[in-house]
Amino acid sequence: MKEFDTIAAVSTSLGEGGVSIIRVSGDNALPIVDSIFKAKNGKSLEGMKTYTMRYGFIVDKDSREVIDEVIVSYMRGPRSFTAEDTVEINCHGGVVATNRVLEETIKAGARLAERGEFTKRAFLNGRIDLSQAEAVIDIINAKTELSMKSAIKQSEGIISKEISAIRAELLGLIAHIEATVDYPEDDLEEVTSKKANIQLSTFIDEIDRLLSTAEEGKMLKEGIKVVIVGKPNVGKSSLLNALLQEKRAIVTDVPGTTRDVIEEYINIDGIPIKLIDTAGIRETENIVEKIGVEKSKEKIEEADLIILMLDLSRKLDREDEEIIEYIRDKKYIVLLNKKDLNRQMESKELSKLDSKYIIDISVKTGEGLDNIKNCIKQLFFKGEIKTEDIYVTNNRHKEALIRSKESLRAAIGVLENVEAIDLASIDIRNAWTALGEITGDTVEEDIIDKIFAEFCLGK
Ligand SMILES: Nc1nc2c(c(=O)[nH]1)N(C=O)[C@@H](CNc1ccc(C(=O)N[C@@H](CCC(=O)O)C(=O)O)cc1)CN2
Ligand SMILES: Nc1nc2c(ncn2[C@@H]2O[C@H](COP(=O)(O)OP(=O)(O)OP(=O)(O)O)[C@@H](O)[C@H]2O)c(=O)[nH]1
Ligand SMILES: [Mg+2]
Question: Could you report the per-residue pLDDT of 334-381, keeping only the tens digit for each?
Fold first, then answer.
């Protein structure tokens, strides 16, 4: 194992809470904590059994004054999260106690950990690979239980396993090609070339299968972006509030109430939905409202799905039509709101709408709200997410898969010209390298640093 210094950080979230954990990891974790720990039973931590706990006090290193009452646990490397000696101090929750204990560990010789440094060590020490480490952030940020399930699977190495299998086969193929080149007999090269071509196509198929999950994978991780649009006063903010079951947005009968974009997550049977309420779109001279309308239009560009809301108690007008024109190329569903009022909108007016889904609702009475949820579910993930499936949720992985596929395609291109069989092995090696970026086997140090810098402190 590599040699690292000993690091410390608060691993729980800082604030009022029952208990906080200060995690210390590295060769000197136990002696460092021992130097500021006074056990109830008077014993030093030296020789403490792994995966056991001790009760006592953290004391000021110099004055020996008691700082906090704690429980200390010990996990001897390599059987710990970081694969290094790890000591965790469970102190009283609260910002002051927690920071005081952390400060003492630093005074006693630990270094304050950087963001993600514990997980980075688990990676650098070889306990987990890079995609597993990235899954740790996804677990923390998971929006729904389903997103969490997918992240846990990735943390267990489900993607790594597939990637490593393909890489191993690629390496075998490279070896075979190089052996063939060393014994140049024309017909042998031809046989190898034909065989390699078939193999390469199956790898491309496997990569395509992974890539085909990327769009849904991204939605599983980040949520499906659903933007509610429509002219002022149709009931957009009322819908957001109803789906959230919370009075999040201001609702009034004054057209032009919402100005800022409001974004909140809801959970539809495990599918995370990022619901975005926007300012009603219309021509306006009001400078604040105008900015709101601009923002609405920006959000339309980013949307995975648009909910177009119309007010069925009014006739379709030019403002509605302009919005319909604006979202023409996007995936959208139509809600005809205020069903509880007298209907003025006629169905022939709606014939120009290009959506399978036109749903009558009343946000006021709650009628039809369940249909919206079902409709969104139908539109994405074909109605259900199969939790046993692998999803590529990480954009970095997706890009590496694409590059690796391009190299494999190039290799096939070269192999069609049998004389250049050794040139193909260069492309195959590039594909192998690109896949290795996912697991972290062939990734540059600055990219590794960037990935872990996105973690929170103490992770
Ligand atoms: N107190 C505490 N709770 C925690 C963590 C932690 O670091 N501390 N974790 C931090 O995220 C998570 C648990 N993750 C962990 C992952 C691996 C090992 C570990 O020791 N792995 C050894 C096997 C140990 C064994 O089999 O007995 C290994 O893989 O070699 C421990 C925790 C969630 N809960
Ligand atoms: N009768 C009836 N009124 C509704 C319904 N939904 C919303 N409203 C009312 O319509 C008015 C406008 O609602 P909002 O949710 O503020 O409309 P909005 O589309 O967000 O409006 P802007 O933010 O101005 O673009 C409010 O008075 C709501 O109470 C409904 O289903 N039936
Ligand atoms: Mg509004």
Answer: 999 999 999 999 888 888 787 789 999 999 999 999 999 999 988 887
Ligand nearest, relative to CA of residue 128: 1
Contacts of 340 by beta carbon, 8 Å cutoff, 6+ apart = 362, 364, 365, 367
Angle at 362 between CA 245 and CA 356, to 5 degrees: 105
- For 155-192, what is each residue's pLDDT tens digit? 999 999 999 999 999 999 999 988 888 876 767 777 78
Cβ atoms 14, 98 nearer than 8 A = yes
Q: For residue 253, report the distance from its CA to the centre of ligand 3, in Å.
A: 9
What is the distance in A from the centroid of ligand 3 to the CA of 237? Answer: 4
Q: Would the pTM of this model clear 0.90, i.e. be above it?
A: no
| Helix 421-439 vs helix 395-415: crossing angle, to nearest 10 | 170
267 CA → ligand 2 middle, Å = 23
Residue type, 32: I
ipTM, 2 dp: 0.83
Nearest to 309 by CA among 341, 277, 273, 349: 277
In ligand 2, the atom with minimum distance to the C-alpha of 363 is 31
Q: What residues does ligand 2 touch, defined as CB less than 6 Å away?
A: 230, 232-238, 251-253, 255-258, 279-280, 337-338, 340-341, 362-364
Contact 442, 436 (CB under 8 A): yes
